[in-house]
Specification:
With about 350 residues, this protein is of the alpha+beta class. About 25% of the residues lie in helices and about 30% in strands. The protein has six helices and 13 strands. It has helices at about 45-65, 80-95, 120-140, 205-215, 265-270, 280-295, and strands at about 75, 100-115, 120, 150-160, 165-175, 190, 225-240, 255, 270, 270-275, 275, 305-320, 325-340. A hairpin with a 5-residue loop joins strand 12 and strand 13 (about 325-340). Helix 1 (about 45-65) crosses helix 2 and helix 1 crosses helix 3 (about 120-140). It starts with about 45 loop residues before the first helix and ends in a 10-residue tail after the last strand.
Length: about 350
């Protein structure tokens, strides 16, 4: 019986930190300016302004909470208040980068007092922020999900009537679905030759199904505003299947060798073994090879991008390992270099 181990990819994060010291509830000049020393990416002015606004608003909220008797009459534009509450809540409580299999959306409206200049008191903003947090917390815990995470809070400024601004609240809670996998416990497929499932029924085979899952799950990249992508220097990389193993010596790409050339039904059928499906193991193994191991081994630049693949299940001699008999998934992986092109330099693509 083949052993199953799921391989996960590498996550890279850039973390920017800063310490802010405040002495009052009113922002002083440059009080919230952040020193972006030692950062590995250059932030745009817009990005830095967003962070400064966020920190300034957070300071004011915290200061007023810590000093409930302090009333300075400070006002803020209503539109800015709604946006700032939304940004602060999401950065404080949102986990949008998780995998969520299901989501639940709840909606309600609240009101806040505004003056004739469409401004609100910061004291009222503090109270309203806590009210919104309490509402969303109830939505969250009443979602019905066991493994849940907060996805996003969307606040929208509505109509003003009788000096009351209506704010719509849209709260989205997610049910965590960590480790998305394309194949279920009942999925089983013959290793190759388009023989169908392990009972030799249906269309396709394990190699084809893994290829389809890879293409359906291929990451999508989006260019910065004002640009489009162009691709050049297409390159096809062949892999026989024996090239990469995990830390336990299991082949990431489907590959089994046998000196006598005797391969059993158990060898040729990719199915559920224990609590894991061999199809998912090799799907994750292929992703690890495609997006991590191969680019690193070949010392490729960051814009070297996976484009498509052809995976075929075969039974043959391995010319790379003394012509030993094997069954394997032969890979032809296509990559290209991705470039940014300003919009307007060349016409957009059209259908053939």
């Amino acid at each position: 019986m083949k052993k199953i181990r799921i391989i996960t990819g590498l996550t890279i994060a850039v973390i920017i930190g800063g310490a802010i010291v405040i002495n009052s509830c009113t922002k002083h000049e440059n009080e919230s300016e952040i020193d972006f020393k030692d950062q590995t990416v250059e932030l745009s002015e817009e990005n830095q302004a967003f962070i400064n606004r966020l920190v300034d608003f957070k300071e004011k909220i915290e200061c007023l909470k810590q000093n409930p008797g302090y009333k300075n009459g400070e006002k803020i534009d209503a539109t800015e208040a709604v946006k700032s509450m939304e940004d602060l809540f999401n950065v404080s409580h949102g986990f949008p980068d998780e995998h969520y299999g299901n989501t639940k959306t709840d909606a309600v409206t609240v009101q806040i007092a505004v003056d004739n200049n469409h401004e609100v008191l910061m004291d009222d903003v503090v109270v309203k922020y806590d009210e919104i947090k309490n509402i969303v917390t109830q939505f969250y815990y009443n979602s019905g999900f066991t493994e849940k995470g907060f996805l996003l809070l969307d606040l929208e400024k509505r109509e003003i009537a009788n000096n009351q601004l209506e704010i719509s609240i849209r709260s989205v809670t997610g049910e965590k679905d960590e480790g998305w996998e394309p194949f279920g416990p009942d999925d089983n497929w013959w290793f190759g030759y388009q023989k169908g499932d392990c009972e030799l029924n249906g269309d396709g085979d394990a190699a084809i199904k893994i290829q389809e899952a890879l293409m359906n799950h291929k990451p999508l990249y989006y260019p910065p505003p004002g640009y489009r992508f162009g691709y050049s220097d297409y390159e096809q990389i062949p892999l026989f299947g024996h090239e990469y193993k995990d830390e336990n010596g299991e082949y990431l790409i489907f590959y089994i060798e046998n000196a006598a050339g005797n391969f059993t039904w158990e060898d040729k059928c990719l199915h559920l073994v224990g609590n894991e499906n061999e199809l998912n193991f090799h799907f994750n193994g292929e992703e690890t090879v495609i997006y991590w191991l191969l680019p690193n081994d070949l010392n490729k630049p960051e814009n070297w991008t996976f484009m498509e693949c052809l995976i075929e299940g075969k039974e043959e001699l391995n010319p790379h390992v003394n012509d030993i008999p094997c069954i394997h998934h032969n890979n032809d992986l296509t990559y290209a270099l991705r470039y940014l092109i300003p919009i307007g330099i060349i016409e957009p693509p059209v259908e053939l």
